[in-house]
What we know:
The chain is an alpha+beta fold. The protein has one domain (5-122): 3-Layer(aba) Sandwich (Chemotaxis protein chec). Helix content is 35%, strand content 28%. It has 6 helices and 8 strands. It has helices at residues 19-24, 45-56, 61-72, 90-96, 116-121, 124-127; strands at 5-11, 14-16, 30-34, 40-44, 76-78, 85-87, 101-107, 110-114. An 8-stranded antiparallel β-sheet has the order 5-3-4-8-7-1-2-6. The longest helix is centred in the middle third of the chain and has 12 residues, at 45-56. The radius of gyration is 14 Å and the shape is globular. The two termini are 21 Å apart.
Amino acid sequence: MFTGESQGTVCESRVTLPKWLRADLPDDSLVLCRGLGGCLLLFPAPGYASYLEQLLDMGPEKDTRNVRRFFEAAAVEVEPDARGRIYIPRVLLEYAGLHSEVLWRGASDRVEMWSPDRAMSTPPERTGDFRPRR
């Protein structure tokens, strides 16, 4: 489970994973994708697959197709290098407005990556969340 918040820097399309996050990461690969409200989401690969499956439980396929496309279209597998850095493709950097700083927020089964300016200007109710209906 990912909890905590910290700030970091973006340098040459790379970010260094915070120590609190590295300590909790499984050995599996990671998946980086767009999130709601203009953030990026970082998942352990099995968690991302589970998240996509949960989206299918939201309702009829025609209703979830565009939602799945939103999350899947720009998703990439990333692997931290020896220094704990991951590469972020330009399309994701631009989507999230990440230029020089990143705000890391643990969010249970994933980690959100925010532009500090965007995080402070986006009310919590506007970030949304897709969870299966129970």
